[in-house]
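Me: I keep going back and forth on a fold encoding question. No explanation is needed for now; the record alone will do.

Assistant:
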Amino acid sequence: METFDSILEKSIEEGEQKAEEARSVDSMKLLSQLSNKMRGLEEQLERELQAVETTKAQIEELSQRQIPDLMLHDLQMSKFTMIDGNEVSVSPEFQPSVTKDNQPAFFGWLRDNGHGDIIKRNVAVAFGKGQDNEATQLIDYTKSKGMTPSDKVSVHPQTLKAFVKEQQTKGNKLPETVTIYNFFKTKISLPRKKN
């Protein structure tokens, strides 16, 4: 026959076990809720990022096609001021580019024609632990040690744009390796505040 103390102890143990199980169930419910919330926020973020991309495409369509076509072709104007004071203007723009396949030829052309100074070059070598002092050596030295340096050669997009604009202004011919996308761009300026 069980004593009162043993029955009480068993009851307390069962109660603690049930409380632990309840806490575990509550924790699992909370984990499930938090996981669902995170998944929902990730889906919301994806929708919002897609909406941003869609909005950017719509702005580009208006800025580079619809407004310039209407103003330049139909209305034959490049600037006007709206009743609210906003100024809308359309001006020619361009965006040059050089494909990856054409870069070596283009960089050669730049060097051959005295424009090599606009080329940026980033040389990188991966060193292991304990090779910090060797990192200061020249590329030839690293090659002699059996390391393979990466060599990235580029012209920054804004530098390329400025260079192409300068060459066009001077009437200089550019190589066929440069592609130029010409377009019109709309700018809306807010009215100046009166003092």
The mean pLDDT is 86. The first strand starts at residue 79 and ends at 81. The chain has two domains: 1-77, 90-189. The chain has four helices and five strands.
